């Protein structure tokens, strides 16, 4: 769905200087908030069945995906790598909101289903489950 249509339906709220790559998809009926200077990479997608908030300066890489059934919040300056997935619905019966902290870095092809602390780094291809914690950068 095009961002303009979603804005008219008040399902998406955007800050200043939001950049949207070709082929970006935003689906679902929940509110999506994009802060100032957010970048959605080419072919990325947001499936919002619960609120999604991307704070200022978040970068969602090419073909990366966010799937929210209980809610996803990504802190200011965080980077979600190309082809990475952030999802709160690993088990639909137990979906809980996922929070990615400020300045966190999620590597390409990583799968995140749990919280990531501010400034933490998740390696490429790593899987972060609800009970796992990413190790902070030094």
Coarse shape: globular
What is the count of helical runs? 1
The N- to C-terminal Cα distance equals 40 Å
From the helix content, strand content and strand pairing, which structural class follows?
mainly beta
Q: Runs with pLDDT <50, length 5+?
A: none
Number of strands: 17
Assigned CATH architecture: 3 Solenoid
CATH superfamily: Hexapeptide repeat proteins
Spatial order of strands in the largest sheet:
2-5-8-11-14-16
Percentage of residues assigned to helices: under 10%
The major sheet is characterized as: 6 strands, parallel
> Order of SSEs, N→C?
HEEEEEEEEEEEEEEEEE
Average pLDDT rating: 87
Summarize the structure.
This protein is mostly beta strands and 138 residues long. It has one helix and 17 strands.
Please, could you describe this protein's structure?
This protein has about 140 residues and is mainly beta. The protein has a single domain (about 5-130), classed as Hexapeptide repeat proteins (UDP N-Acetylglucosamine Acyltransferase, domain 1, 3 Solenoid), CATH 2.160.10. The protein is built from one helix and 17 strands. It has one helix at about 5-10, and strands spanning about 10-15, 20, 25, 30-35, 40, 45-50, 50-55, 60, 65-70, 70-75, 80, 85, 100, 105, 110, 120, 125-130. The strands form three sheets. A six-stranded parallel β-sheet has the order 2-5-8-11-14-16, with no helix packed on it. It is globular, with a radius of gyration of 14 Å. The relative contact order is 0.13. The model has no long low-confidence stretch (mean pLDDT about 85).
